[in-house]
């Protein structure tokens, strides 16, 4: 990794420094949300207290992943709007070959915004406190793994992994904006196959309207999706 020609001199130090600054200020911005949780303004509950069915206890993780992936994808695309990219997101993309120390090397306001889906779910629908903690732990571990070049080739398709998709995103900023999966990228036209790129078979071009991952009609689709999420007849979803 350090031998790559696009690896910055003193990059790890720069990434660690920015990550520490971001963690501090993002934590400050999160205090009001935590205060609201403590005061009972959310739908957090304890496992086994009878708030939801036992089936929902398990299904809520799937529902959260759908909700979080959708929100994070479109927030990520929003930060790739030319104005927000230049003023905020470019701080993260200065590292073409990211290391695990870049996991929090964002603008503090952007990092806080990207974390909002984890909290927002519990304001809208029931969420176990244990699941929320689990989500935070897994998301943090995941953020490090996709930058450490060690993920097994077990996810998404037979020829790509999230690790490869994320590294590819740093080399081609218009592509692969998803967090865990490539579903929204494929649906919205921002998917880039890193293996095809390596073989020189294309897979990196966007249509003109999606070139800068701006908020086009696809963003409207996302809001419609979120607006109807609770109205759908999800199995075992509490009313």
Automatic annotation (TrEMBL):
Keywords: Membrane, Transmembrane, Transmembrane helix. Pfam families: FA_hydroxylase. It comes from Aspergillus tubingensis (strain CBS 134.48). Residues 62-190 form the Fatty acid hydroxylase domain. The keyword Transmembrane applies. One of its GO terms (molecular function) is iron ion binding. PANTHER family: STEROL DESATURASE. This is Fatty acid hydroxylase domain-containing protein. Its main location: membrane. It is found in: Membrane. One of its GO terms (biological process) is lipid biosynthetic process. The chain crosses the membrane at residues 20-38, 58-75, 95-119, 131-148. GO terms for cellular component: membrane.
């Amino acid at each position: 990794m350090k031998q790559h020609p696009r690896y910055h001199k003193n990059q790890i130090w720069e990434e660690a420094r920015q990550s520490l600054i971001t963690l501090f200020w993002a934590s400050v911005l999160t205090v009001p949300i935590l205060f609201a949780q403590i005061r009972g303004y959310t739908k957090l509950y304890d496992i086994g207290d009878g708030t939801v069915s036992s089936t929902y206890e398990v299904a809520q993780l799937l529902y959260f992943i759908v909700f979080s992936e959708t929100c994070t994808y479109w927030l990520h695309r929003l930060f790739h709007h030319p104005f927000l990219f230049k003023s905020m997101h470019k701080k993260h993309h200065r590292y073409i070959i990211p290391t695990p120390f870049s996991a929090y090397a964002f603008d503090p306001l952007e990092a806080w915004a990207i974390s909002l889906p984890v909290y927002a779910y519990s304001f809208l629908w029931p969420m176990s406190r244990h699941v929320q903690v689990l989500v935070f732990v897994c998301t943090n571990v995941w953020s490090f793994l996709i930058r450490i070049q060690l993920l097994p080739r077990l996810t998404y398709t037979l020829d790509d992994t999230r690790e490869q998709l994320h590294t590819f995103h740093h080399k081609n900023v218009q592509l692969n904006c998803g967090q865990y999966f490539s579903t929204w990228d494929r649906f919205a036209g921002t998917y880039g196959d890193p293996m095809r790129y390596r073989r020189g078979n294309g897979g990196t071009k966007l249509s003109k309207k999606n070139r800068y991952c701006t908020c086009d009609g696809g963003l409207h689709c996302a809001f419609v999706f979120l607006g109807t999420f609770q109205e759908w007849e999800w199995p075992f979803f509490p009313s």
